[in-house]
Amino acid sequence: MAVNQDHPDYPAYHAKYRALWEDYYKLEKKETEKYPDWRGLDHPANEVLCPAYREVCRKAKKLQEEYSYLFQKNV
To answer: Whole-prediction pTM value?
Structure first.
């Protein structure tokens, strides 16, 4: 799938999409900084980050559905 970046609604879509992920990355940074010496698997921050990641993915998918007319199949 390709997104039509020339469409007048693209900047609004892109800003909303980017804001979703920027918020998630801020949360990720905040949570991982709580455990600066953690070096193993199953990071303690995953308890907060896994649900937050699923939520941001759900919101991104909903946003893509809202702006579905911007997306086209590559032919």
So the answer is: 0.84
